[in-house]
Amino acid sequence: MVGAATPEYRALLPGSLVESAPDAAGPVRRTARDWFVDTVFFLFALLLAVSLAAYSYESGIDEGRTTLDLAMGVLCCFGLWLRRRWPVGVAVVVTAAGLYSATSLGAAVVAFFTVVVHRRAAAVALVGLFGVVGGVVFAVLRPEWSTSPLWTDMIWSVVVTALILGWGLVVRARRQLVFSLRDRAHRAEAEQQLRVAQARQAERARIAREMHDVLAHRISLLSLHAGALEFRPDAPPEEVARAAGVIRDSAHQALQELREVIGVLREDPAEDAPDRPQPTLADLPALIDESRAAGMRVRLDHQVADLAEVPAAVGRNAYRIVQEGLTNARKHAYGSTVDVIVAGAAGGGLSVEVRNPWPVGVPVGPEIPGTGTGLVGLTERATLAGGRLEHGRTPSGDFRLWAWLPWPV
């Protein structure tokens, strides 16, 4: 059931008989189509009133009664301009006038139609019953307008009321259907926008997770070399120059990657924009060599026949796990030997293990700060990929980071 007409509903049903009930901001203004429809119904009711009055004059009915009848009918016609604001009130007044005035018939039809379209069933039933009774009372008060028996007038009153009721229900059902379809379309559009926003947020979170892994690795290398220069001020000029070059290159790469991620997070990426190159498991030896060049002792044992055969998504996750494991080893177990073991085959999954001795006492190297969220991100990465990740101290006294990732055939 439609209550007070909202601007959205009026836009949905232009030119309709939508009521204009007042609200806190005042009555709803009529649109151009509303004015057109209201004018058509007003002219219909007025023309019918004049026609009935002309018939009354020609039929020899008392001119005084006819003049009074016409005056009441014209007033009812003008009252139709208020039906959008007070549909039930106008219908009751017009029907009450119809107890005596035959020329108010057109106004009564329009008023009752408005109530049927826009009011609840209880109000429709009461106004309709009043109209049926009013038709019978009119036949009693104005017998000059009817030459048929009273029961015939009663039947005609019921039939006319039923026709108006049916017409209004059809119009009302159609409008509700259109409104429902429009509402569904708006909801579908809103849900689509929400899905797009969620996908964009998930993609940004993925990019941020990737950049955490990359920047943590780069900055830990930079901190390691800077710490070496600090603790070895008497190092040969060649080593100092080499360490300074590594620091410069690592800082340049870290800044470049930071600019990329900030640019992506600030602006919505274009749909056709290419993804930045992502590492695969085939890049693992280069990662190990980079760590060795930074002074770490790393032993790689890969039991995979061809690292390039590992699917890109699986290889990227494995690469990030090893990268974070090496970064954590530089932070918390400086100077220790790190073992990296990669094993698996298609159909059986890929296992990645990074193991280093548990640090004892205060590390002799520079302390590298960390947020402590790297392992949390790795756990989420492995879970989303359908695998699992474990980390912690082993009975033998080592720190072990282990992950299993599915490797489909």
Automatic annotation (TrEMBL):
Enzymatic reactions: ATP + protein L-histidine = ADP + protein N-phospho-L-histidine
**What broad class of enzyme is this?**
transferase
**Alphabetized UniProt keyword annotations:** ATP-binding, Kinase, Membrane, Nucleotide-binding, Phosphoprotein, Transferase, Transmembrane, Transmembrane helix, Two-component regulatory system
Whether Transmembrane counts among this entry's keywords is: yes
> Which Enzyme Commission numbers does its entry carry?
2.7.13.3
The UniProt record lists the keyword Cell cycle: no
Domain Signal transduction histidine kinase subgroup 3 dimerisation and phosphoacceptor intervals: 203-268
Q: Which SUPFAM superfamilies match?
A: ATPase domain of HSP90 chaperone/DNA topoisomerase II/histidine kinase
Q: What are the GO MF terms of this UniProt record? A: kinase activity
List residues traversing the bilayer.
35-55, 67-84, 90-116, 123-142, 154-173
Q: CDD domains, alphabetically?
A: HATPase_UhpB-NarQ-NarX-like
Query: What is the official name of this protein in its record?
Result: histidine kinase
Q: What species was this sequence derived from?
A: Phytohabitans kaempferiae
**Which lineage is the organism of this entry classified under, starting from the top rank?**
Bacteria, Bacillati, Actinomycetota, Actinomycetes, Micromonosporales
